[in-house]
Design brief:
Elements: H1 5-14, E1 24-25, H2 28-34, E2 37-42, H3 52-62, H4 65-68, E3 72-75, H5 79-91, E4 95-100, H6 105-113, E5 117-121, H7 128-139, E6 142-143, H8 150-166, E7 172-176, H9 181-193, E8 198-204, H10 209-216, H11 241-248, E9 251-255, H12 257-269, H13 277-287, E10 297-302, H14 309-315
Parallel strand pairs: 2-10, 3-4, 3-6, 4-5, 7-8, 7-10, 8-9
Antiparallel strand pairs: 1-2
Helix pairs in contact: 1-8, 3-5, 3-8, 5-6, 8-9, 9-11, 12-13
């Protein structure tokens, strides 16, 4: 394992004054429809609107002071971008974020509002990592990866650490899967606390790189996917995160765009919480009965709430 439970516990202490301890919510109506008892870890209510502040702040606070002063470079469609911008502003350093041209407007504007400099790229033709690392080489700034680094994984794992304090004795936990930092970190924390717990990742059918990789037994790359879940468009699992997922995750469940849309609509209209498409995929998997039938108590991570207003209008 690239990260230990102790790493995650230390990360929780390190980020205590930066990241919020988010609430866990329940819904009898959801439970009736999903035929499970669901406990929602509401990272949509996190600082910056998503869980990403946990990994970004743990990374920043783990750095040597001399490196920290040179600032950060990151690449993201939005949530990691905001997290890095928040961390940089809090620490008084510069941040440059490489963002795709088709990033949701709400995420782009928020990143700029936090004081970051934004460089855009074409998702279909450009290599975002190469652009970001080129900027880092030119400026001396540190590249802050969205998922594939020990410090980032440890920070994301604090989600499960909190969840299992707030809702003990879960049968399983479900997390959305993008590059795999959240899923890997949460699986390490959860298995340390409850060795028998069952863990599931969830991806959109249109962005199923981790599902394909697990079936192939190795990391698989897919073309840039088209899905409303913009935070889950990583074309391949991380080099560090994928072996952890292979070891700890029972399976990756797939949900369609219509199922994601219905989950976002249900969470907003019935539970009165705003969750973005990327953040709602695990709820969609439960709502549409993708889980094995013997699971009763399930922790569901709602990873973010930064929803583009055009998407909301289209919900009807």
């Amino acid at each position: 394992m690239p990260v230990s439970f102790d790493d995650i516990a230390r990360a929780a202490e390190r980020i205590r004054d930066v990241a919020h301890r988010t609430p866990v919510m329940t819904s009898h109506i959801f439970d009736e429809r999903a035929r499970v008892q669901a406990f929602f870890k509401c990272e949509n209510l996190q600082r910056g609107g998503a869980f990403k502040i946990r990994g970004a702040s743990n990374f920043a606070l783990s750095m040597a002071p001399a490196d920290l002063r040179r600032g950060f470079v990151a690449c993201s469609s939005g949530n990691h971008a905001q997290a890095v911008a928040i961390a940089a502003k809090a620490l008084g350093v510069n941040a440059t974020i490489v963002m795709p041209l088709d990033s949701p407007r709400i995420k782009l504007e928020a990143t700029l509002d936090y004081g970051a400099h934004v460089v855009t790229f074409n998702r279909q033709t450009d290599d975002r990592d190469a652009i970001a690392r080129g900027i880092a080489d030119e400026t001396g700034a540190t590249f802050l990866p969205p998922y594939d680094h020990e410090w980032t994984i440890a920070g994301q794992g604090t989600v499960a650490l909190e969840l299992l304090e707030q809702a003990p004795d879960l049968d399983a936990i479900m997390t959305p899967v993008g590059g795999g930092g959240l899923t890997a970190g949460c699986s390490i924390a959860a298995k340390a606390l409850l060795p028998a717990i069952r863990l599931f990742g969830v991806e959109p059918t249109a962005a199923n790189d981790t599902w394909l990789s697990l079936r192939a037994g190795e990391r698989v790359s897919i073309p840039p996917p088209t899905t409303a879940a913009d935070g889950l468009r990583a074309p391949t699992p991380g080099a560090l995160t994928f072996p952890v997922i292979q070891r700890n995750i029972e399976s990756v469940l797939l949900v369609t765009e219509d199922e994601i849309r219905e989950a976002v609509h249900f969470l907003l209209t019935r539970m009165k919480i705003l969750v973005e498409p990327s953040g709602a995929v695990a709820a969609a998997a439960a709502l549409f009965h993708k889980l094995p039938p013997d699971i009763s108590r399930i922790g569901i991570v709602l990873t973010g709430g930064n929803v583009d207003l055009d998407y909301l209008r289209a919900l009807g």
